[in-house]
Amino acid sequence: MKQLRIGLIGAGYMGKAHTIAYQSVGAIFEMTCRPACEMIATSHHDGAADVARRWGWARSTGDWRELVDDPGVDLVVIASPPRTHLPMVIACVGARKPVFCEKPLGTNAAESLAMTEAVEQARVPNMVGFNYIRTPASQLARQIVASGEIGEVIQVTAEHVEDYLHDPTLPSSWRTRVATGTEAGALGDVASHIINACLRLAGPIESLVADTTIVQTHRDGPHGLEAVENDDQGQMLLRFANGATGSISFSRMAAGRKMGYTYRITGTRGAIFFDQEDQNALWLYDASREPARRGFQKLLMGPAHPDYLAFNQGVGHGTGYNEQIAIEARDFLHAVTTGEAVWPTFRDGYEVDKVIAAALVSNRDRCWVTV
Amino acid sequence: MKQLRIGLIGAGYMGKAHTIAYQSVGAIFEMTCRPACEMIATSHHDGAADVARRWGWARSTGDWRELVDDPGVDLVVIASPPRTHLPMVIACVGARKPVFCEKPLGTNAAESLAMTEAVEQARVPNMVGFNYIRTPASQLARQIVASGEIGEVIQVTAEHVEDYLHDPTLPSSWRTRVATGTEAGALGDVASHIINACLRLAGPIESLVADTTIVQTHRDGPHGLEAVENDDQGQMLLRFANGATGSISFSRMAAGRKMGYTYRITGTRGAIFFDQEDQNALWLYDASREPARRGFQKLLMGPAHPDYLAFNQGVGHGTGYNEQIAIEARDFLHAVTTGEAVWPTFRDGYEVDKVIAAALVSNRDRCWVTV
Amino acid sequence: MKQLRIGLIGAGYMGKAHTIAYQSVGAIFEMTCRPACEMIATSHHDGAADVARRWGWARSTGDWRELVDDPGVDLVVIASPPRTHLPMVIACVGARKPVFCEKPLGTNAAESLAMTEAVEQARVPNMVGFNYIRTPASQLARQIVASGEIGEVIQVTAEHVEDYLHDPTLPSSWRTRVATGTEAGALGDVASHIINACLRLAGPIESLVADTTIVQTHRDGPHGLEAVENDDQGQMLLRFANGATGSISFSRMAAGRKMGYTYRITGTRGAIFFDQEDQNALWLYDASREPARRGFQKLLMGPAHPDYLAFNQGVGHGTGYNEQIAIEARDFLHAVTTGEAVWPTFRDGYEVDKVIAAALVSNRDRCWVTV
Amino acid sequence: MKQLRIGLIGAGYMGKAHTIAYQSVGAIFEMTCRPACEMIATSHHDGAADVARRWGWARSTGDWRELVDDPGVDLVVIASPPRTHLPMVIACVGARKPVFCEKPLGTNAAESLAMTEAVEQARVPNMVGFNYIRTPASQLARQIVASGEIGEVIQVTAEHVEDYLHDPTLPSSWRTRVATGTEAGALGDVASHIINACLRLAGPIESLVADTTIVQTHRDGPHGLEAVENDDQGQMLLRFANGATGSISFSRMAAGRKMGYTYRITGTRGAIFFDQEDQNALWLYDASREPARRGFQKLLMGPAHPDYLAFNQGVGHGTGYNEQIAIEARDFLHAVTTGEAVWPTFRDGYEVDKVIAAALVSNRDRCWVTV
Ligand SMILES: NC(=O)C1=CN([C@@H]2O[C@H](COP(=O)(O)OP(=O)(O)OC[C@H]3O[C@@H](n4cnc5c(N)ncnc54)[C@H](O)[C@@H]3O)[C@@H](O)[C@H]2O)C=CC1
Ligand SMILES: NC(=O)C1=CN([C@@H]2O[C@H](COP(=O)(O)OP(=O)(O)OC[C@H]3O[C@@H](n4cnc5c(N)ncnc54)[C@H](O)[C@@H]3O)[C@@H](O)[C@H]2O)C=CC1
Ligand SMILES: NC(=O)C1=CN([C@@H]2O[C@H](COP(=O)(O)OP(=O)(O)OC[C@H]3O[C@@H](n4cnc5c(N)ncnc54)[C@H](O)[C@@H]3O)[C@@H](O)[C@H]2O)C=CC1
Ligand SMILES: NC(=O)C1=CN([C@@H]2O[C@H](COP(=O)(O)OP(=O)(O)OC[C@H]3O[C@@H](n4cnc5c(N)ncnc54)[C@H](O)[C@@H]3O)[C@@H](O)[C@H]2O)C=CC1
Fold first, then answer.
1. Does the CB of B246 have a partner CB in chain A at under 8 Å?
2. Where is each Gfo/Idh/MocA-like oxidoreductase N-terminal domain found (chains A, B, C, D) (predicted)?
3. Which of A109, A199, B354, C171 is most solvent-facing, going by the fewest CB within 10 Å?
4. Residues A238 and A359 in one domain
5. Nearest-neighbour CA in chain D from A143: distance (Å)
6. How near does any CA of chain B get to the CA of D275, in Å?
């Protein structure tokens, strides 16, 4: 079994999640390669060394270029802020190393396109980190829609709302600045996930109209009050290529919603509903049943559903956030070993960023925009 | 205690509900008048007589004008299709009789304005039938928002989705025709309720952009296949006068949703959530609690909540659809006996119709529209 | 259509519910008789007069014997405390008047048997007030179990828990005294309902073992601290005649549970689950479906379910507590007009009281008891 | 940082879970040791080698005694069937190696006591595998009860019901035989978990009465139809040392319940409710709030709750089954490195087995039994 030596950039929220995933993925799934946690890079030399020791990475560096260029690193996982993604990806392509990049791919669609074209031209295996759509339940949702079990999709009602910035005393960060983050606030940070889900479940979005607002206009920064530069919340209407219509709400200030990534997909023969706060259940409605036996059915994930059995033999015993990342790791390693593109590739990430770009234009110009 | 003799027009879905309400309202609430079921009118003389006998109305007629003009009728409740509302209301005004009218008030905003001005000029007590907002839970929602308990409203995520026309084999009816129904399909039939709720809970809507579609373009009619003339589903983005933004989804084809009148009102200090399919609960989130004790709280309605105790002394024992109509009846009788305007008056119905009118324009012209 | 003149004894919690029911039942259901609210009796002459005026009863009395003997009263509804039921029933039998009696039928099984034998010998139509089992959802549950849809019943997990006496500062009342109430506290007051449901859904109970406790040993009474004389809470194990086993929890101090009348009936081919706090839904599990599509289905009550359409044409629009009483009224009037026994008769009430009696013995003697 | 070399016995359901846990625990938690997956033993030499290669264990053996005696193994994790636990534990004690043992500890209380005394006399660090009580939510439940936040416990309503043997065509296995499994069927396999929870949350159980049944009396075995030798389902009443009472239902045939480990703990000041099928939420009811604001609150687990932050920084992002095992691994390694006893030790496992033993006696003798 071939060993694959991982290089990870970033040791924050997602850096840790990827670490856990790569350390356990080999035990969880039947693999054709053996992943090894080779090197980790963060912005600081010492911090990297410390985290390597604690998390079990063989080596560390304070300079991500060193990691990308290191002959002992076979593939790269980027889990640093969006602003850093472009140069890192370009370097990986230069080094001909397979690259996984956290979402959003670029800080704007142009960047994403540049990265996409770079990996495609160089035929470098690549993947972007939309993990939520990888839960067993959302994979099942995809199966159900794709197989026509609920008929043709007619309406999509989706949202990704959280409240991690609801508290007005929370300080500014890269997430609230355009220069270090992205022009899209909640739109980029959370809506990107649910846009990805909509594309996956209902197909391409043709046009949209969006409306966003900054609720908390200023937050404490390192040098006193600082303007919040990107949206706290918003919503958009969608027209899909297949004729379905829908809407997305998004927010980082939705008091009480902690992981409000939800979708209801209505079709001509039924419907599905999912709420990530109860990630082990998918609700299915079959309109063909006799009237007295119609009702949403709560399917608890189990061995009969996609990518569940590897984690657990018991229905309803449950997987959590980190297991989405383990599935992602398995898929990326599959892409690396086989050379097959595994969804979502950078191009899929670019498709999301195009929707975000259209939403920004729509919000600015107060009109419908073709994606 | 003064007796008030009711005249009811219409013996369909809502006619029955109003009958039940007026027969029991006196026992349910402490009243200052005694309502009597005096006369019922439907389109057919015989049908009216039959229904009067079965439901307990003293007299009946096949001609609603007879009812309006009858000196033994003190007030009129209109529960016939929207297309009939205008002449009936004008007649009531002519007869100086208090008038309750089912929603939507008119078939368009112009009609609604005409009715509103007529009752206002003649100082005829009047009310429009937005019953859902009268449940104990939605009254509590109003209290909570109005008192500032969840701070200033920042986002409204609402919908009214049902599936009563999801089955493509269901025939056409006044609901699917413009000539006999209204230009607004699900937009008028169901969205009117949730627009009313949004106005009640978050204040005036300044502008909107809407998108509607006819999913099932043809249905069986009395003379063969007939075009469906108004929307089956849609969604809109809202900008409120107070700066909040939001969205509404609406549908009569939302497979699996039976009474999907839901709203989440997010404020700067908390949030509320309501789903009419579980009408005895209001969910409240208080962002000021300590982090480890934050979470939506399921408040089951009980004697401590608005208009519950009259029905039942036990918390969580529950009220249903018909009890909303009883509350409505109590309120209308209050308006009649005291002369005080009781929300929602015709003017409030007109406000809803203005939003619907703006949505129709927005959908046609594909742009944001000021209400 | 024959008129039936009702006499109601009691103007408390249930007296009001029966009043509302008899005033609206004629409009709700297709009836073969016309019920009239003729006379109401309470313990006080003046109170009776006042309540008659407010609730719409034609006449009133402070002496229930007057009501029973009045030739203008065709049938009697008893909604006074359990301690008063026996003499009232015996008087009704003497007057050969159909009699409906609130639960629990007697204050003990001997009383219930006496009443049962009295009505049966005199062939007086009779019914006992177990209203919860009359919701559309619980009627559907009965259909599902009786038809074999979930196979043979193997386990019953049930409870009736409320918290109306959780607060230790609440005073004593007839409910907490043996002399004026019953020896069974929560066991009689709430468990009687769920025992009735178990009998209805899973058949006769052969033996049981019960354990009850008084949690709050003293409460404020009219003359100072007073001992609580009957159980606040308890639980029992059940063996059914058909081989199924099960358990019941009951309480009047179950903090947070307001209408915790729940049952899960597990069968060899599936299961059902019901919670009265969400009374418009029945959950159904069909074990024969393919593994990936197995899960509890939430059936929202609608016109396709028992006794729903009369209230409302829309699925999921919902019925509440008072509508159970209206169904009960319809059924009792049916028993009166046709002479057919309608479940639950006094004998069925006696069956419940036998289970309660066995539970009291079991608790005292700390052993299994044959019912 | 000291390395600790793990030896794992068993490569089934739990063997895999422990493998995942030990491979990722170092990245998840701040550790004072570095766990290494050294050796795995199963019943077959080849199977062990295969699994070692696939899961990432350095060495393997078909003879567990080899593993226990190997000087390169610092501690032992037993994840083989109950029937094998006693000799393995005794061998570990002989080798003075810390030992973790899956539940149930012994096949009966005598065995458990023997194991407990052995580890205690030899002062060998030890722990038993009741993982469910280690979720952040159940740890929070413990905090809430222990701190008195819901007052004194008065009633416990608990169950552990699954349906893994509901299908009558499923074959017999060690789980259905006494000789290779335990005398207690569902009682040992699932009820053991919830008994452990009851002891943890409400304290020692003084006495009980239990009733169990074999529903499916025969199942296909390797040599044709074979008798099922232990209980499929049952229920018991409990009396706790502190005066609280309660009940437990348990089943391996509870159609539709997949992970029905639930408890409601009612106290004098509030209540908590938990359902393992929604393991990231704990429901809390605070009876001291004003009546109009009382209701169960759904607390989604997050960084403010026990053992959550190490997995994830986002509230409600969720943990799953395997993460319970990672917490367990962290705790056992803590016990090993510090020598401190970490709950639940073998003695705690023995306490559970005593309750099971009492339940078996109670079921046989049809009477209350002192634990
Ligand atoms: N898929 C998901 O569910 C989530 C994805 N993300 C995405 O993951 C990425 C990282 O976000 P977080 O982990 O939340 O950020 P974070 O702020 O927690 O951590 C960022 C890490 O990147 C490192 N870093 C920053 N600049 C660097 C540089 N020039 N060289 C090397 N290391 C550098 C920092 O030292 C830090 O360790 C973002 O793209 C974000 O959008 C974040 C959270 C959830
Ligand atoms: N508030 C609510 O929840 C609901 C409100 N509605 C509203 O109630 C009104 C009636 O709707 P439904 O009861 O569903 O209609 P329906 O079709 O069930 O019944 C209409 C009734 O009006 C009578 N009618 C029609 N034209 C008449 C005329 N010229 N003179 C006398 N009677 C006439 C018919 O005979 C029939 O009895 C509509 O405005 C509708 O939008 C309807 C359903 C629910
Ligand atoms: N089916 C259900 O859901 C419920 C049933 N009940 C049952 O209904 C019955 C009454 O209970 P509540 O209404 O809660 O009691 P309550 O205390 O609210 O009212 C009792 C009424 O009976 C009257 N009364 C008492 N003694 C009388 C006498 N000697 N003559 C005439 N009237 C007399 C009182 O004046 C009072 O109006 C009880 O059997 C109780 O168990 C009570 C609540 C719910
Ligand atoms: N804590 C929990 O949630 C759960 C605990 N368990 C417990 O875990 C233990 C194992 O159960 P499962 O993993 O379900 O069993 P399993 O049948 O899936 O696997 C048992 C493993 O033990 C091995 N084994 C059997 N005899 C052996 C021997 N003499 N020497 C070496 N290896 C031997 C087998 O080869 C097999 O790999 C039991 O005590 C069970 O009660 C099981 C499932 C869940």
1. yes
2. 4-130
3. C171
4. yes
5. 22
6. 16
Distance CA C252, CA D154 (A): 12
Nearest CA to ligand 4 atom 27: D43
A106 inside domain: yes
Name the D residues in 209-228 with CB < 8 Å from any C CB.
Answer: 209-211, 213, 215
B73 lines ligand 2 (CB under 6 A): no
Both D125 and D142 in one domain: the answer is no
Task: Give, for A193, the enclosing helix (H) or strand (E).
Answer: helix A191-202
Q: Are residues A149 and A115 in the same domain?
A: no
Q: What is the mean pLDDT of chain D?
A: 97
Residue B261 tokens, joined: 């009148």
Q: Do D248 and D138 share a structural domain? A: yes
Q: Do the chains contact at D302 and B296, CB–CB below 8 Å? A: no
D273: contact with C, CB 8 A cutoff: yes
pLDDT at site D202: 98
The answer for residues whose C-beta is within 8 angstroms of residue D328's C-beta and 6 or more apart is D21, D100, D127, D129, D131, D134
Which is it for strands A205-213 and A369-370: parallel, antiparallel or unpaired? Answer: antiparallel
pLDDT tens-digit readout, C283-334: 999 999 999 999 999 999 999 999 999 999 999 999 999 999 999 999 999 9
The encoded tokens of residue A26 equal 């080999």
Q: What's the CATH number where D66 sits?
A: 3.40.50.720
Mutate to test the pocket of ligand 4, among D13, D133, D259, D352 (most ligand atoms within 8 A of CB): D13
Instruction: Assess if residue C303 is contained within a domain.
Output: yes
D124 & D225 share domain: no
pLDDT for the residue A356: 97
- Work out the average pLDDT over C85-108: 96
Residue C103 CB–ligand 3 contact under 6 Å: yes
D269 CB near a chain C CB, below 8 Å?
A: yes
The closest-lying atom of ligand 3 relative to the alpha carbon of residue C82 is 39
Q: pLDDT tens-digit profile of D268-278?
A: 999 999 999 99
Q: Is C313 on the interface with B (CB under 8 A)?
A: yes
Q: What is the pLDDT of residues C216-228, one digit of tens each?
A: 999 999 999 999 9
How confident is the model over D136-159, as pLDDT tens digits?
999 999 999 999 999 999 999 999
For residue C189, being part of any structural domain is answered with yes
Cβ B291–D300 below 8 Å, yes or no?
A: no
Mean pLDDT, residues D313-327 taken together: 97
Q: What is the CATH number of the domain that holds B295?
A: 3.30.360.10
CB atoms within 10 A of CB C206: 13
Same domain for A102 and A145?
Answer: no
User: Among C97, C116, C131, which residue terminates a domain?
Assistant: C131
At residue A285 the predicted structure's pLDDT band, cuts being 50, 70 and 90, is: very high
- Where does a domain end: B74, B106, B131? B131
Q: Is the pLDDT of residue D253 over 80?
A: yes
Average of per-residue pLDDT values in chain A: 97
Given the CA of residue A16, which atom of ligand 1 is nearest to it? Answer: 13
Measured distance CA(A367)–CA(A136) in Å, rounded? 37
Q: What is the pLDDT, as a whole number, of residue D181?
A: 77
The parent domain of residue A237 ranges over 133-341+349-365
Nearest to C209 among D237, D270, D287 (CB): D237
The reply to whether C294 touches chain A by the CB within 8 Å rule is yes
The beta-carbon neighbor of B321 closest among C1, C259, C317 is C317
Q: What pLDDT score does C231 carry?
A: 98
Q: How many domains does chain B have?
A: 2
Task: List the beta bridge partners of residue B303.
Answer: none
Question: Distances from the Cα of D353 to the Cαs of D107, D134, D249, D299, in angstroms?
Answer: 8, 19, 17, 32
Backbone CA torsion sign across D232, D238, D244, D247: positive
Q: Does D302 touch chain B (CB under 8 A)?
A: yes
Partners of A299 in beta bridges: A282
Are residues D238 and D102 part of one domain? no
Nearest ligand to the CA of A13 is 1
Regions of chain B where pLDDT drops below 70: none
**C-beta atoms of A284 and C292 within 8 A:** no
Q: What is the mean pLDDT of residues A238-253?
A: 98
Residue D371 maps to a domain? no
Per-residue model confidence (pLDDT) at position C308: 98
Ordered DSSP codes for A52-96: HHHHT-SEEES-HHHHHH-TT--EEEE-S-GGGHHHHHHHHHHTT
